[in-house]
Specification:
66 residues, alpha+beta, 3 strands, elongated
């Protein structure tokens, strides 16, 4: 899980994003923390959040262009 730091919990797993999100990314649904019941679910959630943050960063970039 590149870009995430995972750790086991008593009832599953928790992962925190390593880098920071912009305010624009956060206001458009990106999370810096995800919880899952197993490692497979955790990987999928981290991958989905990584892809979402990349897309929203691109939208933020294009928003600033004339």
């Amino acid at each position: 899980m590149s870009g995430w730091r995972g750790e086991p919990l008593d009832d599953g797993f928790l992962a925190r994003r390593v880098g920071e999100l912009s305010d624009y990314q956060v206001s458009n649904g990106c999370l810096d923390l995800v919880r899952a019941k197993d490692e497979g679910e955790l990987w999928l959630l981290c991958d989905a959040q990584t892809r979402l943050s990349e897309r929203i960063a691109f939208a933020e970039f294009t928003r600033g262009r004339p």
